[in-house]
Amino acid sequence: MRLYAGNAEEFISDTVQNQIAVKLTEAFFNYFRYNPPESEKRSWRESLSKICSVFQFLKFKDQGIILEYQLPLNSKRLDCLISGKDNQGKDNAVIIELKQWEKCQATDSDKVITFVGGGNREVLHPSVQVGQYQIYLNDNLTAFYEENKINLDACSYLHNYFPEKEDPIFNQNYKEYYDKYKLFCADDVLLLQKFISSRVSYGEGIKIINRIEESDYKPSRSLLKHVSKVIKDNQRYILLDEQLVAFDKVSTLTRNGLNTDKKKVIIIKGGPGTGKSVIAINLMAELSSKGFNTQYSTGSKAFTESLRKSLDKRTALQIRYFNSYSNADENQIDVLIADESHRIRLTSNNRFTKKENKSDLPQIEELISVAKLPIFFIDDHQNVRPKEIGSVEYIKSNAIRLGCEVFEYQLDIQFRCQGSDKFVQWVENTLGTRKTPQILWNPKAEEFKFEIVSSPQELWQRILSHNQREPNSARLVAGFCWPWSCPNSDGSLVKDVVINDFRMTWEAKETSCKYKPARGIPRASLWPLDPRSVNQIGSIYTIQGFEFDYVGVIFGKDLIYNFEKQVWEGHPENSSDSVVKQSREKFADMIRNAYRVLLSRAMKGCYVYFCDKETEKFFKSRIEK
Questions:
Q1: pLDDT at position 221, please?
Q2: CA–CA distance, 353 with 389 (Å, rounded to integer)
Q3: CB neighbours of 616 closer than 8 A, spacing ≥ 6?
Q4: Residue 355: enclosing H or E segment and its boundaries?
Q5: pLDDT tens profile 395-411
Q6: Which CATH superfamily is domain 223-411 in?
Q7: HSE on the CB side for 216, CA within 13 Å?
Q8: What Å distances lie between residue 146 and 78, 83, 92, 200, 209, CA to CA?
Q9: Residue 273 burial (C-beta neighbours within 10 Å; 0-12, 13-18, 19+)
Q10: C-alpha torsion 526→527→532→537, nearest 10
Q11: How far apart are CA 343 and CA 339, in angstroms?
Q12: So where are the chain's domains?
């Protein structure tokens, strides 16, 4: 997706006639269905007029121009990309990151502090930011790595920045970045012109733009597919913008020493598909390789066991549960990475805890106490059980109570749903979990595929066909509206999910059962990892934290939209989740959170069958015809 594409002559004409911001605003509204903020429109007017002057001076005409280009499988947009041929006839493209900065402060990492978004904030150095964009495109678009590839370069242009002598932006901390990914300030116009001209001055850029837009993406990289690469082969996944800012904050704190008078606590917030677990896995690999005793913990059995299965036995020992730290010594480990922190409970005690091992401490206090640097990854809208009390405010208030210094980071980049955060926003708006600008879904305008199907059989066939084309790429899930039975005496599974003449089993139940699943039937805790799990329906408890290319969702009758009252209603009588049913006052909210999770697990497409036709009617009313 991009908001603008054309040749240099058209771009110059639109800019000189003060139409470029107008056209971008119209394109933005047509795609996102709401108007961009005034600050973004001002940025377009000022920054694009500056780069337009550069192109105009070079007398560019048939170079290709893309503005606000969305990275593949990502919601981040590039400011400007120009394409053309060089003097040897080779295809080239240059990413140009435009900044209105006037000054900045250096840090001891690859970030700077500058005035953005109404205050001084820690952000990536421009050369680091644009360099990550270049690496990301080279990794994910075939046009940049196959035979006859397009040569890609990247630079940043700070058109309002007049550097002082020994300016912070050229601090030695950043030299390796600005040497590789050039940075041009307000008085570097001639150097910028030379840099761009040497790469694209022979034009024919529209053909190159078309090659980029028609380029294939690399196969989607789900978390489990590259866990082993990150941990075993030390191949760090490319992190962008706020992901890298959060990652580098942790690296800086560990590098500067963890034995400080005031303990630091980091909270990293983000919705579905913002890469929380990807950062967490990268952190574990990076810190472990540097000799820090780093442990990764979650509150999910499926998530924990699947990660352990993906790793060698030695590394798997570092993957723990939240309740593993009862009675642990203070600062026993260096770094604790607490993923899926919305699943934190009041205490670590449960029905299996021996009396002598029970702890009086709140679980959050145990997690903060056990590590010199605790890091919490969290989504406030993923609490799906009454005893899950983790939230940003809960973690923050307890950390402050314990005398800790708290750092918060917000992740906004979207890696699921074909890189579009619009689908997640539409789901949230439709379910009423929060108000967003995405009231209507336009299937014709989106690469992400969303379809409502007429029967569970059709839903199942869609998932089967995707798995036949690419094994383990799709899963079928459902709301917890049917009982979950133990295996039969012969180890076979009961077909609990019954909808008219459709019958299918849940994932294999493992605990509190007389008989075990038969050989060849994957355990529920490994349902996300085992390809044979395609023959079972997963629940919220097995898919939370994971993603697949395609997901089929059976939307049950535990949550129904009442058209007459125009409200969502929870129906505990239609639920088989005995734990959630205990909390009737929060039942509807938790079930909405659960369906938000189920509907946002896909990278490329989501199919849904609605058991309740009024609810289906409401969803259809939110889809543009």
A1: 46
A2: 20
A3: 452, 555, 610
A4: none
A5: 999 999 999 999 998 88
A6: P-loop containing nucleotide triphosphate hydrolases (3.40.50.300)
A7: 6
A8: 22, 17, 14, 20, 16
A9: buried
A10: 160
A11: 9
A12: 2-213, 223-411, 417-621
Q: If 0-12 CB within 10 Å is exposed, 13-18 middle and 19+ buried, where does residue 465 land? A: exposed
What is the fold of 417-621? Rossmann fold (3.40.50)
The two tokens of residue 457 are 């059989």
CA triple 579-580-586, angle to 5 deg = 145
AA identity, residue 422: K
Distance CA 199, CA 187 (A): 21
Share of the chain residues as helix, strand and coil, in percent rounded to the nearest 5: 40, 25, 40
pLDDT digits (tens, 9 = 90+) for 90-140: 999 999 999 999 999 998 777 889 988 778 888 889 999 999 899 888 877
Task: Write out the two tokens for 549.
Answer: 């290319």
User: What's the pLDDT score for residue 417?
Assistant: 56
What's the order of all strands across the beta sheet hosting 111-116?
Answer: 105-106, 111-116, 119-124
Does pLDDT of 416 surpass 60? no
CA dihedral 308, 312, 317, 322 (to 10 degrees): -20
- Angle, helices 38-57 vs 189-200, to 10°: value is 70
- The DSSP 8-state label assigned to residue 92 in this structure reads E
Place of tokens 């001209």: 197
User: How far is residue 68's CA from residue 263's CA, in Å, rounded to a whole number?
Assistant: 41
Domains 223-411 and 417-621 share a fold: yes
pLDDT digits (tens, 9 = 90+) for 322-363: 888 887 788 888 899 998 888 888 888 776 666 666 777 889
* Residue 414 confidence class, pLDDT cut points 50, 70, 90: low
What is each CA distance from 365 to 333, 370, 409, in whole angstroms? 15, 9, 21
Both structure tokens of 248 = 């580098």
Find where tokens 């005035």 sit.
115
CA 97 from centre of chain: 22
Over the Cα atoms of the chain, what is R_g? 26
d(CA 74, CA 362): 37
Question: Exposure string (b/e) for 23-35, b if CB count within 10 Å is 16 or more?
Answer: bbbebbeebbbee
> Over the stretch 263-274, which tens digit does the pLDDT of each residue have?
999 999 887 767
